[in-house]
Amino acid sequence: MKCELRIMSGARAGHREVFDKAYIALGRHPLSDLRFDADRDLDVSARHAALLLANERFLVRDLGSRNGTFLNGGRVTADQALASGDRLRFGVNGPEVEFRLVSAGVEQVVAAVRAPAAAAPSPAPPPPATAAAAGKGRPAPASPASPRAPAPAPSATSVLRAQVSVQAARYRALLIVLGIIVVGAVAVVVWQGRTARQQVATIGTALDSLSRELRALRRAQTAADSEAAALRAQLRTERDPAQLAALRARYTAVQQQRRDIAAAQTVDYTAVNRANAPAVAMVYVQFPDGSVFTGTGFSVSARGVLLTNRHVVLDSGGARPTRIAVQFAGSAAVLRARLARVAPDVDLAVLQITDSGTFPVILGLRPDSARPDSVGDPIALLGFPLGLDMPMGGTAAQPVVQPTLVPGTIGKVLPDSLLQLDAYSGTGASGSPILDRRGRVIGVEFGGLSESGGRIVLGLPISRATALLSRATTSTEE
Rounded to whole angstroms, how far apart are CA atoms 335 and 401? Predict the structure, then answer.
C-alpha cells in the first residue's frame, strides 16, 4: 500500500514523495524519510512525526515534537487514521503536507509529471550498513522506494492526459499561492528568526544563571572571609575548653568553604572542554519499528568502549535496537557500534564500536580515593541537549556534531546513588559525562525534573559504572 506526501508550504513547497513502506519518518533529521529544510523549517523538530501502516490504514503519530503535529487543524495527541486529502501541519506556523493514497494508475501519472530532480532534489539515501566499515555507517530506516516508470500502454496515456489537465489547473492555483507566499516572505523570515532566537535564548538563560551563580559565589566568599576573621579573633580570647574546641571545628569548616568557593571561581571551563569534547559522541539508535533516536555517550577506551544510559539503547518495553551508530564531536564519520552490556540495577549501558580504528578517550574517571562530591562544587555537562535541533557544523545531510558545554554546581548528593545538579539540560543529553573542576568524569547524566524547565539535572556517580565497565571489557555481548 502506497501513499504520496505533497509539501504544500515551507522551504520545500512543491516537493512530492511516494512511499511504499510501513514506517515513514518525518522531520528535519537527516535520516528522515520525508526531510524538511534543516535551516529554514525551524518549527519542525528533528524527529517530529511518523506515518505507520497498520491494518491497511495509514496512521499519523507525533514523536514528542516541540511544536506539535496537527491533522486538519486539530492537534495529534494519539495515533490517528489518515484519509486521502488530509492535511498535516508540523507546528502551528510550520509547513503543511497533503496526504494522498496512491493506486497503481495514479502512481504512473505522478511519475510522469514529477518535477525534474534539479527543481525538487530528493534526499540522498542513507549509506548501506556495509559502508560503515569505512566510517560512513548510519542507523537509518530503509530509503523510500522509487516510483515505477509508467508502462507504455494505451490506458496509461488516457489517464495521463486526464491527469495533466488536472495538474494544469493545480499549477494555476499554485501560482496564486506563490504570489501570496512572496507577500508573506518577510513575515516568514521574522518568524524563523524569532524561533532561532528562542533556541539561543534557552542556552542564554543557562548562561545568565551561571553569571548569577558566580556573583553569589563572590558574595559567599566575602561572607566566609568575614566569618573566618571573626573566628580567629574569638580563638585568641576564648579560654573555655569546650567553646574553644567548637570554635576550632567551625574555623576548620569555614576555611574549607573558602577554599571551595575560591576553586569554583577559577575553573577553566575552556580547558575542561578541550580535554574532553573529542571523546564525546552522539549516539544514534534505531528500533525495530524503524524509529531513530539520539542520545549522548563518551569514550573511556581507545578501543572504542563508550558509556551511556540504558534508556538510550533500550525502548520503554526493554526491546533492543536493530542498529546503533556513534559520531564523535568534530567528525562527520558515523561509526557502527553494538550493545556490549546493560546494567541490571542502574540506568547505564556500555557500547562497543565495531569499526576498526583508535578512538579519542575522555580525560579520566575520578578515582574512588579522591575527595567526595560536596554541595556547591562546580561541574560541567558536555553533551547534546536537544540533539540535532541545536546548531551543528557541516551540512544538513552530513552534519558535523558539536557538543554543548554547560557549567553548573552540585545541588545535592546522595552517596552512591544520585547527584542533583543545578545546570541546564534537555532531551538528547542523556548519557553526558558530568565533569569536575579538573575535567575528570564524576558521574553520568540520566535525566531531570521536567517541572524545573531543564534546570534540575540528575546524574549517577561514576562509581556505579566502574564494575559495569570492568565486565564489559571482557564480555562479548550480554
Answer: 13
